[in-house]
Every structure is written in structure tokens, then in C-alpha cells.
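Q: C-alpha cells for this one, please.
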Amino acid sequence: MFRGQFKLTTRETTGLQKICLFAVQLYVEAWFTAPSACSAPRQDLQLLKAIHNYGDSGISQVAMKKFLGHLWYLSEELVALAFFDDSLSTDAKHKMVNNLKNAGIENPPKRATVDLQTVETKELEDFVSANTSRFFEVTGLPCDFLSKDPTQWEEDDNYRSVRATVRSMRVVNDIAERGVALMDEYNLLHTNDEEQKQFLLLTVKNYRQQYPDRKKSTLMQ
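A: Here is the predicted structure, written as C-alpha cells:
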């Protein structure tokens, strides 16, 4: 639309075209569906395969290298989110439940690792192990529905309740990263001394305990 407003070299024009094609064909859909907690594992695996099969090998290699460092939701614990994915077939959920019997490593990594030579054959159940049950231990959510056949989950009150909870979860870390960045910037405006930073944080904590809100009645106490 705006190509006439910029003076680009042939190399820049070609590069921009490649980026736009990648964004339109793959990345836009992934970007808009990313916040869905239930579908995060399935979406990540699908995007991984799509990048691997992308027609432009140069773009594919760069995108794959970057994306392999962000496979949080294919980890042995967070892949449990896929139990609540309505788009996932009953057969796939059967296989996931069966793989809960497989022993996992003692301290599984927070991000899954995938061998590019076998990525095409990978399915969600391949990331499931006994460690996947930790998701329910950490969150305190009931998992008794796992003893039932997946075809009966929709009739289970606990399953529907947990699914509603999972749907309300945010699985993107943009807000957290902005919060950390804002805190770092705020600290630098006051002092670089670590001891003084701790005093500052303690003061803020005490203030919040004493004045939990901004109501005039609270401030006048």
C-alpha cells in the first residue's frame, strides 16, 4: 500500500516481501490465537510444523531457531492445557491420558526441546508423561475426570469447571515483561545501590499494607 512512499533497494524490497508473506501466511493467525490457554500446546506444535515446512528455507531456519526457544506450552507440565482444548480430537486425548503412565525425567525443563529431524511425526501425546500431572498439583485443580473416558468429560462437572478456569488464564508474558521493565526503569531513576533499592521496596510494601486503597477514609486514618 505504501511502497510508493519509500525508496527501497532491490534487496530491501525482496526482504520486505518475504517478511510480509511469512506474516500473512503463518504468523498473523498464530499471533491472534496465542492468548488461548486451552489451545496453546496444539497451536505451538502446529506452528512449529508449519515453520518447518515453509517454502522459504531462509525464513524457515531463522524463524525456527527463534521459536524453538519459546516452547513453554509443550513442556511436560503445561501440555496438560490441551486436555481442555475443544478442537483436539477425542482420540488424541485418549493417547494423552494413556501417556500419563510413562515415567518422566526427575526435573523436566520448563521449555520443551524438539528434534527437527522428527518434528513432522510429533503429536501432543509425545510430550505427556507422569510429570504432566504436576499441573494439577501446582494449580490445585481437580483431575479426577482423567479416570473417565474423554467422551464423558463434557458431562463431568469438575471438567467443565476446570476448563472454565483454564480459559480464563493468560498464557502470554507480554504484560509481565512490561511490568518487570517498568520496575527496572523506576529503580534506576532513584538509585543504583542495591541496599537502597531493598529499603525502597520495603517502604512501598509497608505503605501498601497501611493504605490498601486510595479512599479518602483510608488516608485519613
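A few notes: Residues 10-33 form the longest helix (24 residues). The chain has nine helices and no strands.
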